[in-house]
Amino acid sequence: MNPADYLTPEPDFVKLAYLQSIARRQRGVQFCIAVYFAGVLGSFMLPPELRPLLGFVVLPCVLVGLVFAMLLAVRLNGVVLGSLLCLLMLVPLLGLLILFLIDRKATETLRKHGVPVGLFGARGPITAQTTQATSLPDPTAAPPPMQRPI
Fold first, then answer.
1. 136 contacts 10 by C-beta, under 8 angstroms
2. CA separation for the pair 68, 75 (Å, rounded)
3. Which one in 40, 47, 75, 95 has a CA-CA gap of 20 to 30 Å to 66?
4. Is the pTM of this model over 0.85?
């Protein structure tokens, strides 16, 4: 007998809430990526006397995006790795790479659960009809053992 046979199945609303939070936070990360690119392009296109004004506009947007990225990274990768990724996001170009990695992981998670994902995140509302019957990963489960190559 397998002990997993006796576990209570998770309700659909828990899975839906999990996927909806990932989709919402992914849009925040994508907003941060767009603001990052707009800030870089704006710094090259604006005259030098207007660049500080660009900083006052971009900095709050980047901070909000950092919060969304931390929430999403913690949700997808756990507290330790999510916090480490957010600390590394403070390094300028490395931060952009980490944003892309977090966005890619969110896209993979949504697609794995049957949510259609487009260029700007999940398409349409996430309902029970848009998701497949898959289970969420168990955060208390031990990782699979590493296999040595032969």
1. yes
2. 11
3. 47
4. no
Q: Reduced to 3 states, what is the DSSP secondary structure of residue 121? A: strand
Rounded CA gap, 55 and 60, in Å?
A: 9
Tokens of 124: 């349409």
Instruction: Name which of 136, 105, 111, 115 is nearest 29 in CA terms.
Output: 105
Take residue 56 and report the two structure tokens written for it: 């006052």
CA angle 75, 124, 108 (to 5 degrees): 40
Backbone angles phi, psi at 118, to 5 degrees: -110, -160
79-82, Cβ contacts within 8 angstroms, sequence gap of 24 or more: none
Chain segment 23-37, per-residue pLDDT in tens? 888 888 888 888 888
The alpha-helical segments, DSSP class H, found in the chain are 12-45, 51-77, 79-88, 92-112
